[in-house]
Amino acid sequence: MQIIDRLYKEVEKKGFVCVGLDTSLDYIPEKNKKGKSIHDSIFDFNKEIIDATYDITAIYKLQIAYYESYGIEGMLAYRDTLAYLREKDLLSIGDIKRSDIAASAKQYAKAHFEGDFETDFITLNPYMGMDSIEPYKEYLESGQKAIFVLLRTSNPGANDFEVLKADNEELFYKVGDKLNKLNEKYIGNCGYGPVGLVVGATHTKEVEEIRKRYDKNFFLIPGFGAQGADSLNVYKLLKDNNGGVVNNSRKVLKAYMDHDDGEYNIGKYAREAVLKTREDILKNEGL
Fold it and tell me: Which segments constitute the Orotidine 5'-phosphate decarboxylase domain (predicted)?
């Protein structure tokens, strides 16, 4: 089974929420850090979130910057969290946003699709050109790995470059069309290919056109949660409640902070936040 088919089935079974394990030490209760190393503090917290949500979460995303910032111990927590997800037969995204070409890109591919930091999907930045995507093709061809490439991001600064006109059309559509052409070479049984797109839910006027135009690309959808994207935008980026995963990081990781007994029930409140994310989006059905 291709990895994209597996993700499609996971969404069918567990819903479209992606839990972002973008774990900062600031998110962890003091009692959970006392007497522990940085590695143990982060890894134990991540395990608690995973154990409480694995049956309602399609895939987990680890933003590597949170782990890199803590040096070797942080990267060991990154490695061990990915290994724990594999041990539990769960899917993962390494949110690394790499952009390079030739030999350097090949080394990035090897680093994150093999070895200590192996993950199922990675995020890439395409703005050096399609030759920055080329070195990952051998992994796409295997069917066992896939990518999410930045297309229309959710941050305010996205409008600095992504919407600049190229041949009377926004630049991000030019990028998307090239990625779509590559994706069509590897379509799985589910009707989607392994070249996914990162599409933020903060751009109300574009979401329907993007979903229609890239109907065979799976979406990683940021912006819902701490960034406050409209739930209807998120819903429109999905297709039959599939075809994309909706990332929620801080709202899940920090959910326990809103409750008096939260530090003793981190997993419980993380689970409630995942279910609330799904509920808030599904309320748009039929609109």
Answer: 16-256
